[in-house]
Amino acid sequence: MSLAEKLQKAYGLGIWPEDPRTKEGYARYQASLNYFRKLLEHDWLGEMVRKKEITVLEICAGAGIGGVALARSLMDKKCIVKLILTDVREDVLRIGKKWGAEELGIDIEISCTDAREIHRLGVKADIILMYGYSATHFDPWEMINLLASVSETLHDDGLFIINEIDRVYRIFYEVGFKRVLPEKITEDKLIISIHAGYDVLRGIFRRAYLDLKNPKNHVILHNYYWNIAELAALIWLFFNDVDFVPLMRNIMGFLLAKEPRRKIGPEDIRTLPRMIQQK
Fold this sequence. Notes:
Largest sheet: 7 strands, mixed
Number of helices: 9
Structural class: alpha/beta
């Protein structure tokens, strides 16, 4: 099963609201607007706003809730925004294109592209956004590929913005790691996740997600539980400066990176090291 098929199946369970046309999804969009309005107070974004014409490229966009919310916030500052949504799932991108155009009053470009290959689009962006805790889908080896591709795609003064939560603190300290965890309980759904293994060389936890009312409809995802410091340090290798804007008890917020170094390009790390190739 391809990554796109796995993600489509997992998100189809309805654990994480991503369709802005639903009540839950639109509420998430409204909350996102508040987050981005706060973020625009950061001086790095203040410098960006002065450009007036800004290209925003969202990776792992889903239906574009984050990208549309950022674009709306920039447009409220009188900026002209070009928005490009990318994801590996074409069906949800089409939702984002139609809904986003209605919300913003502009045409939105979409591309079914893996975030690790975003440089192959041949576009240059002022801001690249990864919203909605999507870093968990990438282990450290994959994240290096992603960061190299992102830094190649940004303008020299471009910004990379990641919305993330400190999963180590949240999962292993506050909640405690659970082998079995209820994910969503409603009248129609009884969804749980189950620990399905750990890969030492990649650092990923395999987690099975299933609806007990339809147990054959399950999917196993690979998750990497990033903490903020670890992710920020890795990003810093690819950018001259990194900052963190907290939004919730200092464990959730936005990582901002500016001025790509471009010392390591996507092609330099296309071949994985021996320890991974031999798996």
